[in-house]
Each structure stands twice: as structure tokens, then as C-alpha cells.
Design brief:
By secondary structure, the chain is of the alpha/beta class. The chain folds into three domains: about 1-40 and about 310-395, Fumarate Reductase Iron-sulfur Protein, Chain B, domain 2; about 45-295, Rossmann fold (3-Layer(aba) Sandwich); about 410-455, no CATH class. The protein has 24 helices and ten strands. The strands form two sheets. A six-stranded parallel sheet has the order 1-10-7-4-2-3, with helices on both faces. The N and C termini lie far apart (about 55 Å). The model has no long low-confidence stretch (mean pLDDT about 95).
């Protein structure tokens, strides 16, 4: 079954699932309340959006220079930079580091980049346990699932769903409170921190002039994942670079505001080196893996490279009416929602993922909320144009659109047949595409043009 067929089947199954919709509506409602309150903190939110967007655009224009500056400064700090062209390269680097140091288990803070390279699965193949330490990620890992949302991995699960999961694996009472379940997870994870040979993190930002990576979080799990093990491996997409440490004063609160509605995340850490002589805390070795994996391919496409400005706040997902109805898993991609719809065809095989661009109403809500002013709905439309230009749409669809264009391009042609014939034709040829759950719109018996002529 093709990716498109799988998408259509999954969307049809979940779109009218009332329990799913109720859970998402509840969790999204809390997000909206927090973000709306957070926006009131800004004296001028639009100025902040413009400034961060301009910084990222400038950085992209000088991407190679800033990446080399980071490598130089981080290496001078005593760290090691590795360049991964593909997901396979990144997995190979990490596997080699872990095997050379006889690591049997790792603790991992939340990172969509490690999801992109399917790190947990790959490490399992060589017998290394990889434990997610973010609570939401821990929950979906227990459930054998992937993150449902790029910021809130377990958004699709209710408290009862989590209670059932903890009861199954830990024999924990089904009537446990959220606080009790969180305490249990904390207890289980403490054991993993103490026994892990390495900690793996992503990076929200890479700082060129400091030679450092930044991680922002709300649970302290990233700090724990880097404090106890002797090895810290950070993996980040090359687009995460920003010029200067002073830019964090703008980017950190900007990311928190649009991601969770907070003034700033509870824990914001900067890592620039491993433990140095005379120091008693922190990892003894630190590596940063800079991941391409299709990003330069996207970077070289003039109309689309602005999408690399994304800071992964998730605001576009939360605003998207399609995402809220079909959910994160329907996309079957690492990055879901509008941003995933834009970038995935360019990071992977365009033909295999361009169908995602059809799951968009072009309402523009994603572009309106994006803190980086990425014109997401316009880029989705551009994806559609590329698909048409490359004749990637089905032949029957192309023929139908040619016929539609011919008939509707002139009013006289539309008036050649009456409303009854039009309704019959639409019922025959468009009912399946329109869907069983929606009422087919009907043409009037006579067009406005004909009625107006009679008058």
C-alpha cells in the first residue's frame, strides 16, 4: 500500500473518532489558554516575531560560515564535532562511540532529531538499551509508539490511558492520580540515570560564537541525562545554528511562549565542553553530531529553504484544523502538521510524501501563528504546484482537472446543462472524494446568469 493510500485510510479511521477528538480538544484547550496568556507578556509580539525571523534568515544566508565557526569554537573547548550526511551516518557515529566505550545503556532527553534517525530502534539492534526520560516520550516508548506531536509526544493519551499503561507494566493502581504516576516514572527513571553509560540529547539551538549547544526543557531530564553518564552525545540538524549567545535572550522565551505559553522553560542549559581538569562534575567526553539528512537539498531550493527557519515550537500543529482532526500518527512522518507537510517531501522522496500537501485547507492559520513568519500555507501550495508540474498526480485526476478547467472557464459552458444534470454528474464522479460523512453540495436548478437574463 502506498504512503498516500495509508494516509487516506488512517485519516478516515481517526477523523470521526469521538474519544480521540475529545482528548485532543481537552489538551489543546489548555495550550490555547496558556499561549493566549503568554502573548500578553510581550510589549510587541510582532516585533519579536520579525526580529527572530530576520536573525534566522540572516543565519541561513551564511549557514556554512556559522557552522564552521561553531565547529572551531566547540573543538577549541575540547569537544568533538562529527558531520553526518545521512541518518545512517549519524547512527554509525553514535554506535561506534557507544561500542568503543562499552556502553550498554543510554538515557535520552526529548529530541525529534533522534526520532528522525530512529535511534532507539537502531541501538536496540546492537543490544544497547535506549531509555526516553521526558515523561511524554517515556509514556509513548512504553506503549511502543512514536511521538504524536513534536512538543507534546503523548498529547493523544488521556490520564486513564496512561493509568492503564502503568498498570500493565508496573501493576500500578488504575485509579492513580497524575501526581502518583509522575512520581512512579521519576522513581523508575532515577535507576536508569545512575546506570547509563551515556546521555543523548538534541539541541534547540547551536551557538556559533560560543561553540555551545542549548537545550530547553521543563522536567530536568536533559540535565540529569548529561550529569550522571561519562559521555554526552548531542545530535542536531544543521539548521539549528544561530549566530550569538546574546540571541538566546530573544529565542529562548520566544520558543517557550509559542511552544507551551511559558515566559521561559523551567530549565534552559548550555553545554560547551566536557569536564575539564580540576572539575568534578559533568561528562568526561562530549560529542556534537551535525545532521544534514536532506537539509542541504531543501536549502538549495530557493522558494522552500525559508522552512529551515523553524524552531520546532509546534504552534502550527496546534493551529491546524487538519492536524486536530486526523492526529499526528496519520502523517506517518517524524514532523507532522504544516511544517512536516512542507519539509518532509524535500527531506525524503518528494513523490512519496507530496500527498500530504493535499491535506490542507490553505486557511493560513499556520502562517499566522508561526513565530518565525514562515509562510507555511504558501509553501504547501508550492508543493502542490511542483507535483502538478512534475506530473506526480494520478492521470485520472489530471484529466478531471483539465475537463473542469474547460467547463468552468466560461460561463456559457457552465450554462449548457441545467442543475439537475450537474448534480447527477457530481454525484457520480465526486461523491467518493467528497466523503461519506459530508453532504454533497447541490447546484441550483438555474444559474444566476440565466435568472438574471430572464429578469
Amino acid at each position: 500500500m502506498s504512503n498516500k493510500s495509508q494516509f487516506q485510510k488512517a485519516a478516515a479511521a481517526i477523523a470521526f473518532n469521538e474519544n480521540h477528538r475529545k482528548t485532543i480538544r481537552f489538551n489543546m484547550g489548555k495550550y490555547y489558554a496558556a499561549v493566549n496568556a503568554g502573548k500578553a507578556r510581550y510589549k510587541n509580539l510582532e516585533a519579536a516575531r520579525s526580529r527572530t525571523a530576520n536573525i534566522k534568515r540572516h543565519t541561513l544566508e551564511n549557514l556554512a560560515d556559522y557552522l564552521q565557526e561553531f565547529e572551531k569554537n566547540f573543538t577549541n573547548n575540547g569537544g568533538t564535532v562529527l558531520w553526518a550526511s545521512t541518518d545512517a551516518d549519524a547512527v554509525r557515529f553514535i554506535s561506534q562511540i557507544l561500542q568503543e566505550n562499552n556502553v550498554k545503556s543510554v538515557v535520552k532527553s526529548k529530541s525529534m532529531t533522534t526520532e528522525e534517525i530512529e535511534l532507539n530502534h537502531e541501538l536496540g539492534k546492537i543490544g544497547i538499551e535506549s531509555v526516553e526520560t521526558d515523561l511524554g516520550e517515556y509514556i509513548v516508548q512504553l506503549a511502543g509508539e512514536k511521538p504524536y506531536h513534536i512538543v507534546t509526544p503523548a498529547m493523544h493519551k488521556s490520564k486513564h490511558d496512561v493509568a492503564e499503561l502503568f498498570h500493565k507494566y508496573f501493576d500500578f493502581p488504575l485509579d492513580s492520580t497524575a501526581e502518583e504516576m509522575t512520581a512512579l516514572a521519576r522513581e523508575k527513571l532515577r535507576e536508569k540515570y545512575l546506570s547509563a553509560g551515556a546521555g543523548i540529547t538534541g539541541a534547540n539551538f547551536i551557538i556559533a560564537d560560543k561553540g555551545a549547544i542549548c537545550v530547553t526543557e521543563n522536567e530536568g531530564n536533559a540535565i540529569m541525562s548529561t550529569a550522571f553518564p561519562d559521555i554526552h552525545i548531542a545530535i542536531a540538524g544543521i539548521e539549528k545554528i544561530i549566530p550569538s549567545m546574546r540571541d538566546l535572550a530573544l529565542f529562548w522565551p520566544h520558543l517557550a511562549q509559542h511552544g507551551t505559553g511559558q515566559a521561559i522553560s523551567s530549565y534552559s542549559s548550555m553545554f560547551s565542553a566536557a569536564q575539564k581538569d580540576g572539575e568534578t562534575h559533568g561528562p568526561k567526553k562530549m560529542y556534537v553530531i551535525l545532521l544534514d539528512n536532506g537539509r542541504t537539498q531543501l536549502y538549495n531550493k530557493e522558494k522552500f529553504n525559508v522552512a529551515l527557519s523553524c524552531i520546532r515550537c509546534g504552534a502550527c500543529l496546534n493551529a491546524c484544523p487538519i492536524y486536530k482532526n486526523i492526529g499526528g500518527y496519520t502523517y506517518n512522518t517524524t514532523y507532522q502538521g504544516p511544517i512536516g507537510t512542507v519539509i518532509t517531501p524535500h527531506l525524503k522522496d518528494f513523490n512519496s510524501y507530496v500527498h500530504l500537501s493535499s491535506a490542507c485547507s490553505l486557511c493560513g492559520a499556520c502562517s499566522a501563528v508561526c513565530p518565525q513568519r514562515i509562510p507555511l500555507h504558501e509553501l504547501i501550495l508550492e508543493n502542490r504546484k511542483v507535483a502538478v508540474a512534475q506530473k506526480l498526480t494520478p492521470p485520472i485526476e489530471r484529466a478531471a482537472m483539465k475537463g473542469f478547467e474547460c467547463i468552468t472557464s466560461k460561463g456559457q459552458r457552465m450554462d449548457c446543462v441545467n442543475g439537475t444534470v450537474k448534480n447527477t454528474a457530481i454525484a457520480l464522479f465526486a461523491k467518493h472524494a467528497w466523503g461519506k460523512k459530508r453532504t454533497m453540495p447541490r447546484f441550483a436548478t438555474q444559474s444566476f446568469r440565466k435568472r438574471n437574463r430572464k429578469k
